[in-house]
Amino acid sequence: MRLSTVILPIHRWAEGQQTWRRAEDLGFHAGYTYDHLSWRTFRDGPWFGAIPTLTAAATATTKLRLGTMVTSPNFRHPVTLAKELISLDDVSGGRVTLGIGAGGTGFDATALGQEPWTPRERADRFAEFTALLDRLLTEDAVSHEGVFYSADEARNIPGCVQRPRLPFAVAATGPRGLRLAARYGQAWVTTGDPKLYEAGTPEQSAEALRGQLDRLGAACAEAGRDAADLDRILLTGFTPERTGPLQSVDAFVDFAGRHQELGFTELVVHWPIPDSDFAADQAVFEKIATEAPAQLGDDGAQA
Questions:
Q1: What is the tens place of the pLDDT at every residue in 31-60?
Q2: Do residues 259 and 209 lie in contact, with contact meaning Cβ atoms separated by under 8 Å?
Q3: Residue 216 dihedral angles phi and psi, to the nearest 5°
Q4: Phi then psi dihedrals of residue 25, to 5 deg
Q5: What global pTM score does this model have?
Q6: Residue 171: beta bridge partners?
Q7: 145: Cβ–Cβ under 8 A, 6 or more apart, which residues?
Q8: Residue 8's closest CA among 243, 217, 276?
């Protein structure tokens, strides 16, 4: 069981860089950030770009893996994104994971002046986006004429430091997204069942997650893959437990142990932000980071 953190890009770098360095010092496996133009209750406050933030974090750290949690087609194009990712992978020395998902109906969905896409169109775009991005990150030159995205001899030399490309962590719960995870993913990401967030129980959440894992396994079997080949990541804070597991080391170990038994290999916790949904005691959070992995059988958070 690996323990990672997601650091929201809400601070100017003079302050923000200290958080990324601290995450590495605490032994987190990875530091992720959200790839949005703005997000929820943080919309009217500072919010910086994910790729520049991760590039800066790459120069401020040496071992911490870095990634998006997650990138979507809402305002990204595979051609330009691939160039940025190859550059980021190079700057970091091959420490980048791309969290990738279909996106939702939040502010990103209309920021470029478009109407929000229907769920089916998001799924259609996500499928084409992921397949083209896979090619762009593995081939020197790519031409593609698709329904939503095109490329005309797009060059991506020298490619990623990580071979054949940097890993994809595919966020998905529906059948089409799970098939994408099975085909292209090196990891799979979930936040649980959103319908249970407000009034569900931990037991109901566990059952829902078990069902998602079963469907992932079926999608992998259909694709001729062993589901055990994929890391299984739970982005915490969106299950009925909310921030409860961050109240103490014991509470976290209990929560993490139950999800480890379900089959998850990595838990991602939000770096504390006072006066927000992610408020938590910083001292307790850091104690969890340094003490919980050993109790969960992690023989080294940074792998």
A1: 999 999 999 999 999 999 999 999 999 999
A2: yes
A3: -60, -45
A4: -60, -35
A5: 0.96
A6: 189
A7: none
A8: 276
Each residue of 112-165: pLDDT tens digit?
999 999 999 999 999 999 999 999 999 999 999 999 999 999 999 999 999 999
Supply 143's token pair. Answer: 């031409």
Q: Which two tokens stand for residue 227?
A: 């589901």
One DSSP character per residue, 148-217 reads S-EEEEEE--S--SSSS-PPEEEE--SHHHHHHHHHH-SEEEE---GGGTTT--HHHHHHHHHHHHHHHH
Rounded distance, CA 296 to CA 2, Å? Answer: 9
- Distances, alpha carbon 120 to alpha carbons 125, 164, 173, 181, in Å: 9, 30, 14, 17
Tokens representing residue 61 in the block:
């750290």
Beta pairing class for 187-190 and 231-235: parallel
Tokens (6 digits) for 122: 């998001």
Tell me the DSSP string of 220-241. Answer: HHHTT--GGGSEEEEE-SSSTT
**Burial label, 253 (beta-carbon count in 10 A; 0-12, 13-18, 19+):** buried
d(CA 38, CA 8): 11
Angstrom distance (rounded) from CA 245 to CA 89: 33
Q: What DSSP line would sit under 254-283, residue for residue?
A: HHHHHHHHHT--EEEEEPP-TTSTT---HH
Cα–Cα distance between 219 and 42 in angstroms, integer? 36
